[in-house]
Design brief:
Layout lengths: L1 E2 H17 L1 H5 L11 H19 L5 H15 L2 H17 L5 E2 L1 H18 L8 H18 L5 H22 L1 H6 L4 H19 L6 H4 L7 H11 L9 E9 L6 H11 E8 L3 E8 L2 H8 L3 E10 L3 H20 L14 E7 L2 H9 L4 E4 L8 H9 L5 E5 L6 H5 L1 H4 L3 E4 L5 H9 L7 H13 L2 E7 L4 E3 L2 E3 L4 E5 L2 E6 L2 H15 L5 E6 L5 H14 L5 E6 L7 E5 L1
Helix pairs in contact: 1-3, 1-4, 1-10, 3-4, 3-5, 3-10, 4-5, 5-6, 6-7, 7-8, 7-10, 8-10, 13-14, 20-21, 22-23
Length: about 575
């Protein structure tokens, strides 16, 4: 039977495991644009549950544990992957309701409820993602339980782990973009890490410690010492970029480790492959860690994955520190006071945006609260909820302004103590146009329609840089190369920033009917002189009847955000 304490420890262990491995999951993202990566979003989402469960103590029932975790996950959800994760655990809350302890049938039912809720929440579910991994694990669990109704929680969880790992391995066969990039689905990998962390408690009664708790120290077993000594002999000259380590838990296919060694030697150097009866420990320096992991998955399921960019490790550490500091400031210094609904205030607005210039634009248009966030830092459901509760209106419109924030924003509808309507704005220009279309004298339905129509009339272009090497959508992309996106899709790559802006704007104008306005919002990494040069170049190519405006946005990540309407 699964006690409340064991379930509590399992979720904490799962949270620690995904946190320790989040950079691995982030690295699986196939889209080269720097964004709020899947591993980061999932680890921060379940970290909210870990904090609440640690406060709850050990004397909790299975039902209480599941309720605490589900509530915290819902409020802490970040990005689409975080929302889906929260919905999966909401199933545990429903499936274990009122139960002091849970048996295998309860766990199976709870997982099934979570999968059903996750599929319902996504308008167009895509197979080959975290949804598929969760669904297949649930289906295999049901089959196993039908075959052996007396099965315990531990053997059932082994079935769930094996099924999830197999489904993850097959995601590239379902989604061609994954196969072309040579990786598995990031969300599915994140979910498997969480399930593995939970399994550590079920199987060994061991909570996987966080990297901070463990001091990043490794086991002192003779097996590990031998592996570390061998791997450490290659720490000299860097030929390949990524130091990649992982453990393969051997499957039943009987494949020999020597074949894995041969493959790793074909894609890198400093190869160490050490095995015993159950596992294979691997170390390789390579420029293609995804290929190494993909091949290793054919030998069994993976744990303890670690990938470090040896050339850019210090820069990565600085970025990680910046993100943690930003998140800390949002939590400690950015608290918004709760404001009761004022019956005399009909409408209020909450927008998500990054960059002081863009923030001021929304405030000037009548937005009450601007939540700091966007592509590089997806705010949580709770961040958005606090902004809603700081807005005294009877009805609050929320403008997410990013496709990866819409689902998190939608979760506030049932949590808020006032009416909330989430407009599906995917870009900053869409959010600005929606605000311009608002009419304070119009009825609610009229404003919904007018604002939705307005955001659909906007063509958005974004100019940024490639965060990683990638083979995406027919483009061979190199890290640092300039990327031009048209309405969220990669349009082309360039080496000259001004040329990229002009070419992108011309494409947007061609796609726009009766184009009247072009807005150029330049980011924090662009000087006024460079922005003026881009404005002049665009103005010289624009139709005579089109008005061109240059705006300082101070946004991160995107050098320019260009809108045409």
């Amino acid at each position: 039977m699964l006690s409340g304490r064991m379930l509590r420890d399992a979720i904490i262990s799962g949270a620690n495991h995904i946190s320790n491995q989040r950079q691995i999951v982030d690295a699986l993202n196939v889209f080269p644009v720097p964004d709020g990566d899947t591993g980061t979003n999932m680890s921060m989402t379940i970290a909210a549950a870990r904090r609440e469960l640690e406060r709850a103590g050990e004397n909790v029932t299975a039902s209480e544990t599941a309720n605490i975790a589900a509530a915290a996950l819902l409020r802490g959800a970040r990005g689409n992957s975080g929302v889906i994760l929260s919905l999966l655990f909401r199933g545990f809350s429903k499936g274990l309701r009122g139960k002091e302890q849970a048996n295998a049938a309860d766990v199976c039912s709870a997982l099934s409820m979570g999968v059903e809720a996750a599929y319902k929440a996504v308008m167009k579910p895509t197979e080959g993602t975290i949804l598929t991994v969760a669904r297949v694990a649930s289906e295999k669990a049901k089959e196993a339980l039908r075959t052996n109704p007396s099965m315990g929680v531990n053997p059932l969880w082994k079935v769930i782990l094996a099924a999830a790992a197999q489904a993850l391995r097959e995601t590239p066969e379902i989604l061609p973009v994954l196969k072309k990039a040579g990786v598995v689905d990031a969300g599915g990998q994140g979910l498997l890490f969480i399930f593995e962390g939970m399994g550590s408690v079920f199987f060994d009664n061991r909570v996987i410690p966080s990297a901070e708790e463990a001091g990043k120290a490794r086991s002192k077993t003779e097996f590990d010492d031998g592996f570390r000594n061998a791997a450490g002999a290659f720490d000299g000259e860097i030929t390949f970029s990524y130091c990649t380590e992982f453990i393969v838990n051997k499957g039943e296919n009987g494949k020999e480790p020597i074949k894995l060694r041969a493959y790793l030697e074909s894609i890198g150097d400093s190869v160490v492959v050490v095995d015993d009866e159950d596992i294979i420990k691997c170390h390789v320096h390579t420029d293609n860690p995804g290929n190494a992991l993909q091949e290793a998955l054919t030998f069994g399921y993976l744990t303890n994955i670690k990938i470090e960019n040896m050339r850019e490790q210090h820069a990565a550490q600085r970025e990680s520190a910046r993100r943690e500091q930003e998140d800390s400031r949002q939590k400690e210094g950015g608290e918004l006071a709760y404001v009761p609904v004022d019956p005399s205030v009909e409408y209020g607005f909450v927008a998500v945006a990054a960059g002081e210039g863009i923030r001021q634009l929304f405030l000037d248009l009548g937005v009450n609260q601007v939540v700091s966030g966007g592509q590089t830092m997806n705010p949580s459901t709770n961040d958005i909820l606090k902004a809603i509760h700081a807005t005294p209106a009877k009805t609050v419109f929320v403008l997410p302004n990013n496709k990866n924030i819409i689902m998190a924003a939608e979760q506030t509808v049932k949590l808020a103590d006032r009416s909330v309507y989430v407009l599906p704005t995917k870009t900053i220009p869409q959010g600005l146009s929606a605000m311009l279309a608002f009419d304070g004298d119009a009825a609610m339905g009229e404003n919904q329609l007018a604002m939705t129509k307005a955001l659909k009339r906007v063509g958005t272009g974004q100019v940024t840089f490639a965060a990683r090497d990638s083979d995406f959508d027919g483009y061979k992309i190199r890290q640092g190369e300039i990327l031009a996106l048209e309405d969220g899709k990669l349009a082309f790559t360039e080496k000259d920033l001004t040329k990229a802006c002009v070419k992108l704007t011309r494409s947007l104008v061609r796609a726009c009917r009766d184009c009247s306005f072009i807005s150029i919002i330049y980011g924090k990494d662009v000087t006024e002189e460079a922005a003026a040069k881009v404005e002049a170049a665009i103005r010289s190519k624009a139709p005579n009847n089109v008005e061109v405006a240059l705006i300082r946005g101070d946004q991160p990540v995107y050098y320019y955000i260009i809108s045409v309407e």
